[in-house]
Amino acid sequence: MGQKINPLGFRLGTTQNHHSFWFAQPKNYSEGLQEDKKIRNCIKNYIQKNRKKSSNRKIESDSSSEVITHIEIQKEIDTIHVIIHIGFPNLLKKKGAIEELEKDIQKEVNSVNQRLNIAIEKVKEPYRQPNILAEYIAFQLKNRVSFRKAMKKAIELTKKADIKGVKIKIAGRLGGKEIARAECIKKGRLPLQTIRAKIDYCCYPIRTIYGVLGVKIWIFVEE
Questions:
Q1: Would you give the distance in Å from CA 70 to the centre of its chain?
Q2: pLDDT reported for residue 63
Q3: pLDDT score, position 125
Q4: Which of 56, 75, 94, 175 has a CA that sits 20 to 30 A from residue 11's CA?
Q5: Cα–Cα distances in Å, from 20 out to 32, 46, 50, 114, 203?
Q6: Contact 202/216 with Cβ under 8 angstroms?
Q7: Which CATH superfamily is domain 10-54+63-120 in?
Q8: Rounded Cα–Cα distance for residues 185 and 85 (Å)
Q9: CA dihedral 39, 44, 50, 51 (to 10 degrees)
């Protein structure tokens, strides 16, 4: 039978790297894992809170601005290095934003003996990242744009990036219909079973007035 697996976990150690780098004894491992989750949630909540304050922008920039692609955490004995990979870092480049974020994280984590170091890294090709495309689709659907039109527009945006294939799947009460269904659109190649093929993937929930829709995006970057 068809057994599905997460494309990122399947390629871990070959084309996909870990997002957390630290060592802990078995008895302290769960604490370190929870600490990582708190740091990531704190950063995402901070960005969402500040995005609502400055939401008067153009559709193109607002739909995909300030989207975090991933957060890297590197822990040393006395320092926690946090590298935020983001599409359009306009919000975090404001004066005092990093200091405010550091205070929020230190309150959440209670890292008294450890120094916190936050770095921002802008993604070179934003529309090559599935998280940014998913956020764009979510923004369009919340503005009552047709889901097919939103999917086609997202695939058009990938033309700006150098990719070999893309697949977008949306499931749920599409168009407000009573019965939930799934719609899929694909362009180019997508070798999911080839481990050496670098494939980016994300699963993103969209809350609409009809209910929750699920978006899955696969991007075949290179081989």
A1: 6
A2: 47
A3: 84
A4: 75
A5: 10, 20, 26, 17, 20
A6: yes
A7: K homology (KH) domain (3.30.300.20)
A8: 27
A9: 170
- pTM for the full model? 0.83
Model pLDDT for residues 188-222, shown as the tens digit of each residue: 999 998 999 999 999 999 998 889 999 999 999 88
Residue 123: per-residue pLDDT: 85
Q: Hey, what's the torsion of the CAs at 11, 205, 182, 170, to 10 degrees?
A: -70
Low-confidence ranges of the chain (pLDDT < 50): 56-64
Q: Given this model, what pLDDT does residue 165 score?
A: 93
Q: Which CATH superfamily is domain 124-220 in?
A: Ribosomal protein S3, C-terminal domain (3.30.1140.32)
With residue 187 as reference, give the H or E element that holds it.
strand 181-188
Would strands 68-75 and 115-122 be described as parallel, antiparallel, or unpaired? unpaired
Residues 6+ apart with CB under 8 A from 143: 59
> Cα(221)–Cα(199) distance, rounded to whole angstroms?
6
Contact 109, 43 (CB under 8 A): no
Distance CA 118, CA 111 (A): 14
- Report how far residue 166's alpha carbon sits from residue 162's, in angstroms, rounded to the nearest whole number: 11
Q: What is the pLDDT of residue 201?
A: 94
Q: Which two tokens stand for residue 117?
A: 């170091």
184 contacts 168 by C-beta, under 8 angstroms: yes
